[in-house]
């Protein structure tokens, strides 16, 4: 065969059992965007239909997380000797301070070129004290290693310390998060800011760009945040600039939301096949 080798992307993320969010969303996004996708699983989330669809959260054993990272980096990491190496990694739900420490060590030793952080701060159904520790560890240990970060409205407020009521506030938050992290920032207003458009703000320290698309409904769709960050990762893996990656990812998510999937759950799920539908 003479086909050229695909670019590679890894997601370090949790499973979400209904397939709308988390690692499943990431892997589908990688495949749709023509990238060889790899998953290292951190936890398993199963919504509980008997309890208002709250999250039931089970962490993967720390040694098993470390083993997955070891296997992946030995096969494809920057120092692996693979013909095409793994340079782009997405970080999704980590879920505990212990997992954050395990992932921090792997990121430091593998030195991936692109580390895209979707700073999943709160998982419904997690004990609040536990979640606060996790948030602080994420900010202290993973955020400094990120090259690209994709906070939603809530996460942008938490990371920047600012209140976000409009696009100007979202811009200020994106600038602040860049200052703190040094990363390119794609701060997502989504459906949470008033107006006809779903507005996200890109800032990389030089370029500030407002990415807007007409809102499709007023309700958040499951998997939109995961898919956006995964699409950014896939595009960076293929050599796009951070701004190009952000633009492509926004269009990919908008198409996926247009073709969202309904179920017996009280939310819909983005469909990554939407762009080709
Ligand atoms: O959308 C955030 C998210 C990420 N990862 C996992 C999740 C969720 C939300 O449900 O379950 C595993």
Structural overview:
- The chain is of the alpha/beta class.
- The protein has one domain (8-276): UDP-N-acetylmuramoyl-L-alanine:D-glutamate ligase, CATH 3.40.1190.20.
- 39% of the residues lie in helices and 21% in strands.
- The chain is built from eight helices and nine strands.
- It has helices at 22-32, 62-76, 97-110, 128-142, 153-160, 167-181, 224-237, 242-258, and strands at 8-16, 36-48, 54-59, 88-91, 114-117, 148-149, 184-190, 197-203, 208-214.
- Strands 3-2-1-4-5-6-7-8-9 form a nine-stranded mixed β-sheet, sandwiched between helices.
- The protein is globular.
- The mean pLDDT is 94.
- The structure holds 3-hydroxy-5-(hydroxymethyl)-2-methylisonicotinaldehyde.
- The site of 3-hydroxy-5-(hydroxymethyl)-2-methylisonicotinaldehyde has 12 residues, from strand 1 and helix 7.
Unreliable sequence segments: none
Rounded radius of gyration (Å) = 17 Å
State the oligomer: single chain
Mean pLDDT: 94
Number of strands: 9
Stated plainly, the CATH topology is called UDP-N-acetylmuramoyl-L-alanine:D-glutamate ligase
Shape: globular
Please estimate the helix content.
Answer: 25-40%
CATH superfamily: Ribokinase
Helix/strand/pairing category: alpha/beta
First-to-last CA distance: 29 Å
Strand order across the biggest sheet?
Answer: 3-2-1-4-5-6-7-8-9
Do you know the CATH architecture? 3-Layer(aba) Sandwich
Q: What's the number of helices?
A: 8
Biggest beta sheet attributes: 9 strands, mixed
Provide the list of bound ligands, each named once: 3-hydroxy-5-(hydroxymethyl)-2-methylisonicotinaldehyde
* Element string (H = helix, E = strand): EHEEHEHEHEHHEEEHH
User: What is the CATH class?
Assistant: Alpha Beta
């Amino acid at each position: 065969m003479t086909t050229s080798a695909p670019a590679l992307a890894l997601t370090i993320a949790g499973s979400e059992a209904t397939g709308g969010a988390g690692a499943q969303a990431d892997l589908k996004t990688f495949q749709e965007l023509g990238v060889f996708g790899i998953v290292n699983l951190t936890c398993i989330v199963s919504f509980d239909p008997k309890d208002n669809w709250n999250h039931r959260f089970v962490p993967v054993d720390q040694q098993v997380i470390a083993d997955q990272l070891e296997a992946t980096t030995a096969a494809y990491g920057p120092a692996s000797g693979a013909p095409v190496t793994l340079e782009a990694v997405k970080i999704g739900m980590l879920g505990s301070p212990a997992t954050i420490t395990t992932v921090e060590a792997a990121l430091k030793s593998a030195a991936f070129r692109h580390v895209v952080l979707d700073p999943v701060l709160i998982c419904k159904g997690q004990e609040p004290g536990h979640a606060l520790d996790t948030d602080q560890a994420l900010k202290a240990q993973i955020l400094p290693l990120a090259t690209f970060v994709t906070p939603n409205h809530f996460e942008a407020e938490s990371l920047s310390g600012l209140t976000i009521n409009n696009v100007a506030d979202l811009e200020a938050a994106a600038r602040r998060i860049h200052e703190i992290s040094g990363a390119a920032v794609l701060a997502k207003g989504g459906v949470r800011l008033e107006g006809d458009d779903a507005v996200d703000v890109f800032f990389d320290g030089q370029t500030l760009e407002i990415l807007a698309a007409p809102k499709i409904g007023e309700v958040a769709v499951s998997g939109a945040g995961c898919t956006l960050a995964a699409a950014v990762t896939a595009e960076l893996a293929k050599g796009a600039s951070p701004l190009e990656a952000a633009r492509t990812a926004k269009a990919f998510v908008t198409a996926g939301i247009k073709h969202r999937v309904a179920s017996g759950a009280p939310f819909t799920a983005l469909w990554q096949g939407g762009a080709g539908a």
